[in-house]
Amino acid sequence: MITVLVKRPHEEAYPLEIRGTDEINELVGGEYELLSDDRLEGISLLVNEELRGVEANNFPITTDGYRDWVYGTCVFVKSDGTSLSESDRDAIRAYLAAQL
Length: 100
Prior knowledge:
The chain has 100 residues and is of the alpha+beta class. It has one domain (2-99). The chain is built from two helices and seven strands; from the N terminus they run ββαβββββα. A five-stranded antiparallel β-sheet has the order 2-1-7-4-3, sandwiched between helices. A two-stranded antiparallel ribbon has the order 5-6. The longest helix is centred in the last third of the chain and has 14 residues, at 86-99. The chain is globular, with a radius of gyration of 12 Å.
């Protein structure tokens, strides 16, 4: 099991232990895509891009200098596949707070 951080639109992010990709699919409502933000080194974002324009905006990201929006539920994971540490989770929460 690994610890991830789950961010749903209009809700606070919370840690969750997951066993694998099936749980991520369930969390994001279907197949997920891997995104990154220039400001979160070593952290990846897993989202369902099919929800673009369907579910409410969650928060903006910046990738390669371009700004875009995350729609629906986002699962933050460590890029190397290990659990997010407490300091990783704190960094993500600070990043999310700066987006509002």
